[in-house]
Each structure stands twice: as C-alpha cells, then as structure tokens.
Design goal:
The structure holds 2 protein chains of 2 kinds. Chain A is mainly α. In chain A, 65% of the residues lie in helices and 7% in strands. Chain A is elongated, with a radius of gyration of 24 Å. Chain B folds into 2 domains: 44 residues, no CATH class; 34 residues, no CATH class. Classes of the chains: A mainly alpha, B alpha+beta.
Chain lengths: 256, 92
Amino acid sequence: MRVVFLFLVTLAATYPAHAEDSPSPASKQFKVLVDQYEQEGGATVFAKRFLALAEEHPKDPAAADALLWIVENVRGRSETTKALELLTANHVDSEKLGSACGDIARSRSLAAEKLLRALLDKGPHDDVKAQACYYLALLLDSEAIVVDQLRAAPDLAPRVVQYYGKDYGKHLASLKPDELAKLREQAYETMLKSFPDVTAQDTTLGKVAERALFAIRHLSVGRVAPEIEGEDVFGKPMKLSDYRGKVVMLCFWGHW
Amino acid sequence: MKQLADKPFVLLGVNSDEDREALKQTMVDEQITWRSWWDEGNVEGPIHTTWQIQERPAIHILDANGVIRYKNLPPEEVDAAIGRLLAELEKR
C-alpha cells in the first residue's frame, strides 16, 4: 500500500514537468504553492503567499494564475482587491480571465467592476469580452438587488457593510438607484449590440439582454408598472390601471 | 388587512393554479374576497412571463400613480411599506 501511494505521489509531482516545455521559475513556484495549499489548507494564509509571488513576477503569466487563484478562493478581503487591481494593471490581455469572470463578479470587492470593464473595453479576445460583459451586467444586477433591499429597509446598512466589507459596502450604500439603472441599461445594451449570438446555457446573450432591458425599463422600482389586462378567477374583466389612486399590493400566488 | 378597509388601498392577486374550478371553490370556502387575475393556469402564463416572476409568492407594491415602489418584499415588511405609501398619499 505504501509503495503504491509513493508511486502516485511521484507521478503527480513529475507530471507537470513533462506536460510543459520549460516552465518559468514563477510557474514552478505557483505549482509548489498549489500543492502546499492542497495539503495544508488555509486560503487566507495562502492568499498572501500567492500575492507575494505575483508581486515578485508582475508580468509573468504565472502571476495571472496566482492572482486568479486568490480571486477564486478568497472573497471580500484586502488580498482579493489587490489581486483584482494587479490583474487590471498587468493581465487584461490574458485569455485565462474569460472563465474567471464569474468569480471576479462574485469577489465582493470594489475593484471587480473596474476589472470587468477593463476586460470589456481593452481586452483583445472577443470571448473574454463577452464573458466580461455578461458578468458585469450580473454584478450590477446584484448591486441593484442590494440597493432595493436597502431602500425598503434602511436599517440593513450596517449588515451590508459587514458582509461586503467597508469600501464596497459603503459604495453599495451610496449608490443612486437611477444611476445604477443607467449603468445596467448600458451593460445590457452593449451585450445586445456586440454579443447577441454568444450562447449562455440554453439561451443567447441577445435574449438575456432583451429580457433584462425590459425588466430595467418596466419592472424596476420607480417605473410605472406594465398594464395587466385580463379576467379574474371568476371570469370578470379586470385591469390594473382601473386601480389608479389606490396603493396596490400585487401578489403572485397559487398552490404549488 | 382589516384596518386598511377604509383606506385607498387594494390587494390584487395573480393566480397560477392549474385547476380553476377548485380555485373558485377555495376562494368561496376561505372567503378570499380580494380579486385575482387568472393567468391561464400556468406559472408561464402571460402575466407571470411579462413580470418575469421567478419565485412565488412574489409581493410587489405600487403607489397610487401605478409606480412600482417595492419589489419582492418580504412579508414582514409589507405593513410598513403600505403604511409609508398611504402616509405619502394623505400628505398630498
């Protein structure tokens, strides 16, 4: 048993060396860190080590790997923000950032939006740009949900700051709903114009954008509700605009 | 809800039940007096689709001008939200 185990460890250790021609010293260090982390755990401790590696070799492709490791493994910490800033400064050209856009959007950092915008505006790869556009829009959508919740219950503000961190939490608490709606509209307009045929799960970004634009323009807080015209359960005609002048509680319900 | 009876307030539903006859009976039996649109027996009915309803029950509150003021409101915040909009209306 021990023999088999040692053999497997040897295989794991030698495999990457064969797989790549001549890995840079930085990429070797990266792999050592990944292996160490898998044995020891402790993402917040390792975030500092990956960051140190990236700062030592700022332009090396392995620095992008190290920074992306941080973004994928720790959210809402100072190392997360630093990693996003360094990716923005040095690695906007990297094709690897495409598949990381979801993690970037979920990183709970004020620097996430800037990186996604940099990828969208300056990135050389169309598929990365499409990903950046999609996740920028989703990030702004999630900010809008927080803003709506804060508007309904302003006493949630301290919890928002606690969860999203001081800088990003304060930013969220200061967002103006109308301005945020404009940014969301712009992101989805870009999606519709530039990436309509890119597929996302079982749909296209064009369809995603059209649906979202309708929601922003007609289903958001502050917009006049779309007319509802039809019949009630008993078959009598019923129209939403007939209730103007009254506060309306609209409840979607059923047995399910 | 009773204390809202004499206020400019109305509760309206959009129902997605499949069985319309059973729903009618339930509404009579349980004395549900507020009106609901019939959405063709389907959570993918035209009203649910237009409103992009993802989770139910979904509660939205509109002011007297038909403007959406609260979306997906948690049930425990409904009373306070309605109170704020009614107070706003009285001030005018």
